[in-house]
Amino acid sequence: MPLTPDAKGVYPIAPTPFHADGRIDYASIDSMIDFYRSVGSTGMTVLGVMGEAPKLDGAEALEIATRFINRAEGLPVIIGVSAPGFAAMASLTRAVMDKGAAGVMIAPPNTLRTDDQITIYYRQASEAIGTDVPFVIQDFPQTFSVMMTPVVIRKIVQENPSCVMLKHEDWPGLEKISTLRGFQADGSMRPISILCGNGGLFLDFEVERGADGAMTGYAFPDMLCDVVRLQAEGQRDAAHDLFDAHLPLLRYEQQQGALGLAVRKYVMAKRGIIASDAQRKPGASLTAKAKAEVEYLLARLAKHDPRAGRTAR
Amino acid sequence: MPLTPDAKGVYPIAPTPFHADGRIDYASIDSMIDFYRSVGSTGMTVLGVMGEAPKLDGAEALEIATRFINRAEGLPVIIGVSAPGFAAMASLTRAVMDKGAAGVMIAPPNTLRTDDQITIYYRQASEAIGTDVPFVIQDFPQTFSVMMTPVVIRKIVQENPSCVMLKHEDWPGLEKISTLRGFQADGSMRPISILCGNGGLFLDFEVERGADGAMTGYAFPDMLCDVVRLQAEGQRDAAHDLFDAHLPLLRYEQQQGALGLAVRKYVMAKRGIIASDAQRKPGASLTAKAKAEVEYLLARLAKHDPRAGRTAR
Amino acid sequence: MPLTPDAKGVYPIAPTPFHADGRIDYASIDSMIDFYRSVGSTGMTVLGVMGEAPKLDGAEALEIATRFINRAEGLPVIIGVSAPGFAAMASLTRAVMDKGAAGVMIAPPNTLRTDDQITIYYRQASEAIGTDVPFVIQDFPQTFSVMMTPVVIRKIVQENPSCVMLKHEDWPGLEKISTLRGFQADGSMRPISILCGNGGLFLDFEVERGADGAMTGYAFPDMLCDVVRLQAEGQRDAAHDLFDAHLPLLRYEQQQGALGLAVRKYVMAKRGIIASDAQRKPGASLTAKAKAEVEYLLARLAKHDPRAGRTAR
Amino acid sequence: MPLTPDAKGVYPIAPTPFHADGRIDYASIDSMIDFYRSVGSTGMTVLGVMGEAPKLDGAEALEIATRFINRAEGLPVIIGVSAPGFAAMASLTRAVMDKGAAGVMIAPPNTLRTDDQITIYYRQASEAIGTDVPFVIQDFPQTFSVMMTPVVIRKIVQENPSCVMLKHEDWPGLEKISTLRGFQADGSMRPISILCGNGGLFLDFEVERGADGAMTGYAFPDMLCDVVRLQAEGQRDAAHDLFDAHLPLLRYEQQQGALGLAVRKYVMAKRGIIASDAQRKPGASLTAKAKAEVEYLLARLAKHDPRAGRTAR
């Protein structure tokens, strides 16, 4: 079931659950996948920036990907395969596609600068992994320092039939979505799926601009699913009400790097989605002050969304 | 009335108002200053990143600074004097201090990398402008690409008696505030004022961590003043309630570069604080979709904060 | 006598001579200009990266530029006007063009990334300074972090009739010259002058690839003039023989930043072209070891080029 | 035979030889190793920046490393193990140390900025690979964008007993060598080996400043060995004569990225050290003009060093 350009909904960016001693927590992988499914996720993404992928060796990465694919039972699983070189990218891609992955996500190396460098890179990457493998462009300039204009994205889409999705996390980025959808409307670009990342900070408006949903790892993927669904149903105000209630916490989770992940895992553990908020070394953990702030935010959120009050521990 | 390390409250980052044809709108400067004073601002900052300073020639910059200083009638005015070289920085500093500025703000050039380069830069800058001129460190890594650890900031403070304030806009940055206040508590750093920027995105918690207030340009400086005041009065929940009500719009305004400024000026013009949302070229303007989004956010905000419903046009 | 696209030869990048106490040394400016003329320079460039321009305030910069223009007596003088904003760029440009400058040189700000950002910047810059003012593109990615493909350069040239010259200092850059000359040959780009910088490190081959000459500050501009002339006369081996004899020293001078400038000024002072090797603060000076290395290199060079043995002190 | 802090001489950075169709050319690996030994190399380094390591998958990288280690028959082989994460770094390190590698080389990820980030990274890396594994710091700011002051290097050395060598390729870098040797002289840093990279562009003076030799990939490693030996014997002028004769070609090879490697492989193939100058895709190849330039440089060099005239094809 390969990924297609009409993918919609919410693909949570899955963290990698660890035990306190650094071992991979496979039971938590299972419970997390089950949770994603139960709240209406339409797929999921593994080994992304927030999946602590660089702390996994090759065998572990493949084992985790396989676990996800098998347990997802038909929900499409996208695997992050960004690598310093095409050889490692191609190896991992072949391995996960053999296991049943729906597609792969490729971030540009931060050495790319010119428009040509970017489009050539994606052409070469597609050739390296196989032009039959569906792939996702990750457009995240704040982290990767690579700036892709809408015209560059269009060129990648038009040159590579296997490009099926954009993970949109440019910021500011609302006009970019409108421009890309305009390219589709004027016939200059074939349709692709656009799922939004960036922690979900602008998701309320992104779907109104034409995005198909979210691909991000906020600790309440159920909220992301609800907002996307409400907007699809035309319940704009309800969507914003729910989103706004979560925004103080969502904003707090939006702290780049290991700290944001620490907040995310802390809340997910508290909700019982995973067993522990441990990060593999080198990682970050929350100070007592930060924990108290998160608890305060959860308590305030619980007044609007009872799910924030139901905790497993 | 030079700036001192016990500065508190809110120093709005003032935009530069222009007429539609690019001329400076001095009447709007006056009305803006009056507004800042009326809502309880304790100072203001001019010619910062969001003040379109690079679009002003030297004579204009000085004239604007002077207008602010005179009209502020005793409220301290900080002038951004960052420049590619110390000669221009020193010239502008001398000129504005002669006019009665309270101090100057200095951002590091984006070529600095090592700890030593940063501390040496501030030592040389202080010597260049005069060691009697109070100055503010601007710590804004997302924009300037210069990362200052708490230890580096402490070193700058200890080496330069005229360093009186930190404009804190690192992100994530809460722990940084706690660490710096810890340095003061353990006696390893003399006290300085910490005012927070970054659009105010974490202001609710920053003041709880020990910040003295805000220095940012959100289009509702009255809200910033209220939040700082409520927190000082111990009304934590009320502070968060007000902050959270504004967060959807504040978040929307937080779009780096000319677009964020376009939102800010649009709202300020709508509120009657300035006459026009024009930016001098090259600038950005809001699309119809973006304007509609801002209007929607204002309408929603008005349910919680009536000030959002009172518009001048 | 405005700069035109058929400019050829050597335009030395002039350092700014200072007295030991930091005052500008106008007598050395005069002697340096006279020296440049005497060795066959066809023009000169002032206030570039190596001219310590950021250490000059506005009045000083204009006074220096004027001194050069007047003393050059008809030799075209190009003024570096790169600035954080168009207002300052336009002010300085107007001032120096009024004084008789031949044109201005504009480096891109290091925030530019995409092809469009670069071409838009030069269009806006040209509008800001006046579309009648001849300008030079400075293409120096190692220092400015802005990468311009040949296609981007062509677009700038085609969109801006007043763009007359490329200061080429990309590295590696030989193929870029060939590609640009190919654009001219196939009629897709109008002819422009290409003068090469980068310390002259590849000048021997750059002129063979089609460059019109050099714009760099090596302490032996006489050698640069000779190499360009010998190549123009078809004396390839002689050109390389002379270049290779200088290469050890030229390579030694090629140390980015204040250190390279310290070597350059040291040798120029030793040759009597300027009176002192002082840099205005903050600057660099040579250690005893470095001075001994330069002396050793000069002594070795003197065996091949007697000019290296003739010193003024 | 683990790498120790008293390593000296020349460790060529070995390219990875490929057949024209992209397969690894193991016969050329063998002939290259034999050549390195025959000219007096004291070790070698594999899988560095110029070894096209990112184009190798994990199995290939290990196989190549093993081939080098076995064929080197006792000459120490250093393996580049830089990776986006510690897991992959540790896996490769364990594998190659088991095979008999002498040590590993670690470059900093280009996200590091502050002094603390750099020293913490090396501490964590050493823990990850095993504190008994000798490692080399690669200090190459132009490529990695990470700036290490001498004090930072000293801290890494003092904190990690298994740090035995610095691959020095900062530029300008002569004073850095002097400063580090000064730290050893004043007892504040234990002795380490310093081998210089950066294409050898300053090797003539680097050894005079206290470097122990070279670790770079210039196509005439025999020249590098001779220069280090001549300097060690006190034949300064002879060392410089030989170096200067090679400088025009060495400078030409010094073109960052795939182009410089293309020159290197072209000359090595011409000399019969490897069979083909093929790079694995994506790679670069020389244009006809560039090949003619290299041939011209070789012909000129042959007048001074007959080895440049002896070619295998």
UniProtKB/TrEMBL annotation, chains A, B, C, D:
GO molecular function terms listed in the Swiss-Prot or TrEMBL record: 4-hydroxy-tetrahydrodipicolinate synthase activity
Transmembrane segments: none
Annotated InterPro entries: Aldolase_TIM (IPR013785), DapA-like (IPR002220)
Keywords linked to the UniProt accession: Lyase
Keyword Glycoprotein attributed: no
GO CC annotation terms, alphabetical: cytosol
Binding-site residues for pyruvate, renumbered to this chain: 215
Coiled-coil region list: none
Sequence similarity: Belongs to the DapA family.
Name assigned to this protein: Dihydrodipicolinate synthase family protein
